[in-house]
Write a structure and sequence with these properties.
This protein has helices spanning about 15-25, 55-65, 80-85, 85-105, 140-155, 175-185, 205-215, 230-245, 275-280, 285-295, and strands at about 5-10, 30-35, 45-50, 70, 110-115, 160, 165, 190-195, 195-200, 200, 220-225, 230, 250-255. The protein is of the alpha/beta class. Bound molecules: NADP nicotinamide-adenine-dinucleotide phosphate.
């Protein structure tokens, strides 16, 4: 068996930490990780702390590791902060993507870039890879630019557009799914939008699908998301029911012009037809994703 060196960037993040955990359990990968702060994961091997905006650090990192594969998860993901500080969003999301893509290309490392469902105007649903992006906020604009820089610098890279939920590591701010879960668990009422749609996938299902992409020679853009479109409200109700919590703590609400600082589109849903056809694999529906999340509830990344 040939063991491949896999570098995961943003390993302190929600997705990055889950990918480190997922791939470290597989004998065919030797996992290396990097993040800006010191590692918040216990017992992590092969961790390198540094700033991916610094091209010299990126080049040194690749020279030392010589990765066969790289999964780049780094971005500024706080949508409202991106709107308030567009140059910070550019530096964190676009500059890091450019540096990683260029260096991966120079070193001959296969690159997977994690993108988003925030690229469209939300006027239709189930966006395909061929739909023309029209981001409505700075987060979407920087992610689109990061995709473009990645492909320009590294034409054989794979770009994965997604939206995911699950458990994040200790020390990470609660993610949307965790926020819903924690409030319901503590019998606190929350408002969730009935007119804001997405196609979320549980993070370990996403990790499995990323593994399929890595093992193929796929290049270009591919959506990896849940097979079922739902509103944030429907997501919350399904999570409450599966967890045995009282769904009446969730109140339906509608997006208002002042709901967020950054403009939001009402439909982020992604079509997964291309993934199905390319990989001959199915992706989970909402029930399957939530079921797996709940099964993993006692288990927390550390
Ligand atoms: N969360 C979602 O539902 C969602 C949905 C669609 C797409 N995505 C995409 O998925 C990816 C991962 O999202 P996430 O939620 O896991 O994000 P996250 O939790 O914010 O993790 C991103 C990590 O990037 C690291 N980072 C930031 N700037 C850096 C720099 N200059 N150099 C090195 N590391 C840096 C941070 O590390 P430190 O903590 O060490 O500073 C942070 O932990 C992003 O590309 C995002 O656009 C996320």
């Amino acid at each position: 068996m040939q063991v491949k060196k896999l570098l995961i960037t943003g390993s302190n993040g929600f997705l990055g930490s889950n990918l480190v955990h997922f791939f470290s359990q597989r004998a065919d990968y030797e996992v290396f990780s990097t993040s800006q702060r010191k590692s918040i994961l216990d017992d992590v091997k092969n961790f390198y702390q540094g700033d991916l905006q610094d091209l010299e650090f990126v080049k040194d990192l690749f020279s030392v590791i010589k990765p066969d594969l790289v999964i780049n998860t780094v971005s500024l993901v706080n949508v409202d902060l991106c709107e308030e500080r567009p140059s910070l969003a550019y530096d964190i999301t676009v500059c890091t993507a450019q540096n990683v893509a260029q260096t991966a290309h120079e070193m001959g490392s296969r690159l997977i870039y994690i993108s988003t469902d925030h690229l469209f105007d939300g006027k239709k649903s189930m966006y395909t890879e061929d739909d023309i992006p029209a981001p409505v906020n700075e987060y979407g604009r920087t992610k689109l630019l990061a995709e473009q820089k990645t492909i320009q610098a590294n034409p054989t890279s794979a770009i994965i557009r997604t939206n995911f939920f699950g458990w994040s590591p200790h020390g990470h701010a609660p993610t949307f799914g965790e926020w819903v879960y924690n409030n319901l668990k503590d019998n606190r009422s929350i408002n969730l939008f009935t007119d804001y749609y997405f196609t979320p996938i549980e993070v370990t299902y996403l990790s499995e699908a990323i593994n399929s992409v890595i093992r193929s020679d796929f290049s270009g853009i591919i959506n990896i998301a849940g097979s079922e479109r739902c509103s944030k409200y429907e997501f919350g109700i399904a999570l409450a029911k599966e967890s045995g919590f009282d769904p009446s703590w969730i109140h339906p609400s509608k997006i208002a012009p002042d709901s967020f600082k950054a403009p939001r589109q009402q439909d982020l849903s992604l079509s997964i037809e291309k993934f199905r056809k390319t990989f001959k694999l199915e992706l989970p529906d909402l029930h399957q994703s939530i079921e797996r999340t709940i099964q993993k509830e006692p288990f927390r990344l550390s």
